[in-house]
Amino acid sequence: MTSFRRWFLAVLAASVVKAEPVQDPDLQLPPSASIHQATVKELFVTSYEAYQEYAWGHDDLLPVSESYFDGRNGWGASIADAMSTMWIMGLTDWFEQAVNHTANTDFAISHTFDTVSLFETTIRYVAGFISAYELSGGQYPVLVEKAQDLADQMAHAWVRENQSIPYGFINFANLLPTIATTNIAEAGSLTLEWNRLSLYTGNSTYQTLAEKSVQYMINMPTPLPGMPAQGIDPLTGDPVGGYVTWGGGSDSYFEYLIKYARLTNTDDNSYADAWLTAADTSVKTLLRSSTVDDWLYLADYDDDQVIRHVGSHLACFYGGNWILGGKLTNNETLVSIGLRLTDACWNTYASTATGIGPEGFAYISSDGNFTGNTAPSQEQLDFYYAHGFYITAPDYILRPEVLESNFYAWRATGDPKYFNNAISATISFKKYLSTTVAYTGIYDVNNVISEKIDDMESFWFAEVLKYLYLTFDDPNHISLDEYVFNTECHVFKAPPAKSHYGSGSEPQPVSSQPFSPMSAPLPAVSPNPALLRSL
Ligand SMILES: *[C@@H]1O[C@H](CO)[C@@H](O)[C@H](O)[C@H]1NC(C)=O
Ligand SMILES: *[C@@H]1O[C@H](CO)[C@@H](O)[C@H](O)[C@H]1NC(C)=O
Ligand SMILES: *[C@@H]1O[C@H](CO)[C@@H](O)[C@H](O)[C@H]1NC(C)=O
Ligand SMILES: *[C@@H]1O[C@H](CO)[C@@H](O)[C@H](O)[C@H]1NC(C)=O
Ligand SMILES: *[C@@H]1O[C@H](CO)[C@@H](O)[C@H](O)[C@H]1NC(C)=O
What we know:
hydrolase; signal; metal-binding
């Protein structure tokens, strides 16, 4: 074979397996980015310093009363959630302090009287530790050990041999679960984390349990094709009710279907296919546009077969998820819907007095205004006629989803409007969320002198400030073509993408070089010798 021929075949082979990138390869970072990035880092530093002073070791800072709250079993949720962001921001001293705190914490017992949430503990603590372990190049194995301590206790959420769906809460003192309905988000958002835990511990049980749960839901009877009801009984495996939504309680089940396919590159197409079926059903059944300004939303549905014209901050992750999923499945229709969903969610920010979006909202489309709740008041209708949505829950509790989708839209298109949205949000946060010591939620996004909510959720550190920081960062840093983000914005390094995901995708040629998330070039680090000794 001539060398030209060999070269040509190599190019051909590469072009067959090469996927469309998720990110716009020509994205131009505006020169002002570094100023805005510095502002975001300053928000992080101020918030974390206040946490260190008033709440160190506890879960949340209460930024108004300058005290603390332990709502996540008292293991220091803010520390776990902040670690991956610290690494990305280059705050390595604090990162090491956080590793040290983690190493000195006993995760086999709850430090409060509460039961342990399988979902919250997985997406915040387990993911936070594993992401921090990967980002720091594997130099702190104690992070994996602590994640494993948690998962070993949480594995008791599956009680019976024939049980696929875990219970949502476990008592760590006696390892008994709370016997109650689980929701599909709780049962379906473990795969990314438990897969990585199996990879680093060599114990496949974690991955097997998480996959078993999702496979069960993929194959169960559903009110709409590919869209399971929100509730599920772990004992019988039966659906509970028939409520279908991309919002809270269901959200990350859908989110993880496509992300798990991407993170593992599995030849099992069932994950990507299930995501595509849910997206297809959503296009056919749930997609609604407002009669004012034509904003696009994904409505909810109940098994009375009536559409609920509602939206939520939580559901606003869907724009970014459709952009990602549309790119990975080579479906530009889904990408463009994802962008329009993102724009409608951003409109909920752009339309309020503070420039920050509400927790809950609703709208009217050509098929009516039914929400399952009370009809809109005159005041809400006036707001609707001006903005194409109306507010049903006016608070903001430091949630990330709108800026998350805005980040995907920015990296995927390079359209400066997304960059500018992030600037507006940063300015609003600084102006309207500040307390004497840090930043906090507000009760009314449409009131510039709203009373403050006295809690700084740990996802302020994990998600809001990371998505903003990365929007203002070099697009090659934590590229969406190289990392998969868990639902708490902790990042996992992914292997090179397949040509596309879902049925019909080519089996991947077996690489002679097994993928290792740790083989990536790492930022220079100088481990603190005092810290290493203490471990
Ligand atoms: C793997 O983890 C599971 C779940 O904690 C545990 O029951 C099992 O004993 C572990 N297997 C090994 C070989 O350590
Ligand atoms: C598992 O077994 C229990 C008791 O034998 C039974 O009641 C339950 O329906 C079974 N669950 C599933 C999901 O098959
Ligand atoms: C993209 O997805 C939509 C919605 O499921 C579907 O109707 C369309 O056929 C898909 N397009 C391609 C090119 O696969
Ligand atoms: C809301 O729906 C009800 C019932 O269909 C209808 O009577 C009413 O006119 C609608 N209101 C608006 C503002 O669309
Ligand atoms: C590590 O943590 C322990 C206990 O929390 C503390 O006493 C020690 O000073 C810490 N060391 C470093 C280097 O941060």
